Amino acid sequence: MSAHGNPPPPLTGEGGPRSGSGEGSAASGEVAPLSRPSLTRGPPSRVRGGGRRALTVCALIIGLAVSASGLALWQFSKNLPPLDLGPASLRSTVVLDRSGGLLRPFATADGRWRLPLSAGNVDPRMLAMLTAYEDRRFDSHYGVDPRAVARAAWQWLRHGRIVSGGSTLSMQVARLVEPRPERSLAQKLRQGLRAIELERRLGKRGVLELYLALAPYGGPVEGLRAASFAYFGREPARLSSAEAALLVSLPQSPEARRPDRFPAAAKRARDRVLDIAAASGVLTREEARAAKAEPVPHGKKPFPMIAAHAAEEAVAADPQAGSIRLTLDGRLQASLETLATERAAAAGPGLSAAILVIDNASGAVLTHVGSPGYLDASRRGAIDMTRALRSPGSALKPFIYALAFESGIAHPETLLEDRPVRYAASYAPENFDLTYQGTVSARRALQLSLNVPAVELLEAVGPARLIARLRSAGAGIALPRDAAPGLPVALGGLGITLTDAARLFSGLARGGSVPDLLRRADLPPPVPTLRADIAESVAAWYVADALRGAPPPENALPNRIAYKTGTSYGYRDAWAIGFDRRITVAVWVGRADGAAVPGLVGRVTAAPILFDAFSRYGGEPEPIARPRDALIAGNLALPPPLRHLRKDGLAASGGATPLRIAYPPDGARIDLGLAGTPAEAAHLALKALGGVPPLTWLVDSRPVAESARRQADWAPEGAGFARISVMDAAGASDSVVVRLE
What we know:
The protein is of the alpha+beta class. The chain has helices spanning 44-79, 124-134, 146-159, 169-177, 185-214, 224-232, 241-249, 263-279, 285-292, 308-317, 330-347, 397-406, 442-447, 451-461, 463-472, 498-509, 537-548, 602-617, 640-643, 649-652; strands spanning 93-96, 102-106, 113-114, 221-222, 323-325, 351-359, 365-369, 415-418, 438-441, 562-567, 573-579, 583-591, 660-663, 669-670, 684-689, 695-699, 702-707, 711-714, 720-727, 733-740. The chain has three domains: 87-292, Penicillin binding protein transpeptidase fold; 319-639, Beta-lactamase; 646-740, Immunoglobulins (Immunoglobulin-like). It contains 20 helices and 20 strands. The relative contact order is 0.07.
């Protein structure tokens, strides 16, 4: 305050307001007030100039920083080694059925389950759930999300610690491809560069599929498909919203959220994914609420092990293949595995069972059940009983009859004697029920599986000839101690596998042509091997027609399939093999160690499994088509030599020369000019030596001429192979096979 009591003049904030030239001067007689330092940046022009310089400096600093960062980033990326996707491409070998369904996966060499999977085989809603939870801008960034990185950096600066990593799905894949334990800025930078490289190389879909294959799910389980089977037992395309959400949540912390160990933590993580999915519009609120009510699994499920033996065999044969597709029908395979397990358990402890189903048209193996359970040690389930040599009992009798039919020795209506008989070396066969039927037709003897008539026919055709025919058709026949074939082979005195037996019966269904089995659906069919047929078409049909009338097991309908049973000596093996035009089914039951099982009979134990297997295949059985040359006649209408089986031809002839075909010779190629002339214009002379007239000539088991002389004339119906047979009045016979052109 002044001496006069008045306040001093105020100080202006900027040096005070401007005054006139004499304001505050000494001439006014007043003391000039003290002035404050100026707070202004100078005149406006100078302010603008300074601001520009500051901005320039800032821009220069930022540019230098960006350039230095870019140079450092370039140098960092230059020092990175080439990206190696080899380890990341390692997958479990998978064996598939004919439709691509999973039969059995195999762990990788290091014990991991990493099943191949395409994004196209995953529910699109699950993929949307995944990106909503892990990387909302996955479709728009180039491997690194700048917004996520900026957010993570701001949170780091603000909190002094890492709150969120800013990783994209692509960066997570980079971490899975190049796993490193340390967590550092350099490691994050490496992941970002690798993520960009991955997207350039693989594209979005490729990066996504790599994540689906490599994401960890706890323990040795890696990848969405393996996790889906491990926790839910099915493919990821068939998951519910709750199941999909659980699998989306697990890779972030696979060990801490494993539902088999920490179900509460797994549920919390799953519910968070459902909340995010609802907020992003992937699910509705109601769907998310319903999904939260579902329980989480509290354990793991075993991986599929369907057709375990066939899968193991395929992998052993082609160890480098990542995916193997077999000809098996997965649905039928699983059904018949269940059937074998149930029936073996009902038959008794320690019993095994095997079932093989063949498509007759192609030779493709539709079902391969090697045992009731691969892991069942009590039944030696690891042994593939379709490959084991076993005694077939009476199961191979049909091939004795087929050989007799095509040789002209017998016809289905030929009468045979079922009476006690003794052969050399004191061999006296008996029927299974120790009874005899007397005089029966060959058809009835085969249907009832009578032993004595079968041995009688085998003596007529020759055991060595039967074994040679079976082997020439591709069957591996084992004889006891490599002994010469004898009459006991008619009743099971040899060894054969279920696989070979099934092939032989399939040959009957195919008109005598035994198929090469086709097991791989992803490879070209094998080149057919040159094998002899198991029977001629007419003889094969005679057998099939007779077996179709065999009495069925209890509670089964008759006249539906052609089938034959067998029981080995000592009740060690029970067989049942049946066929129609479509398929052949072979069943074996017994102990893998070959021990005897009292009461183990093919008709009682194996035949019901056979008929049940046919019903599970589905559809109505289809009979074999009758060949045009089949002779349909009763016994009295047959040529006299075919009415009864006669073995005393040489004795009746009083020591005459044995019957033999003199012309045409066996294996001859005869040019009759069939290609240029009508078939009926060509004739073939038939000549025989020895025997007891009259002679009956047969072509492909059909009578074509009867003459009191030893020659006849035949008019072939066309070119091709023909089996020409001759029989004399005493029942002696001879046959040749020729090719007519």
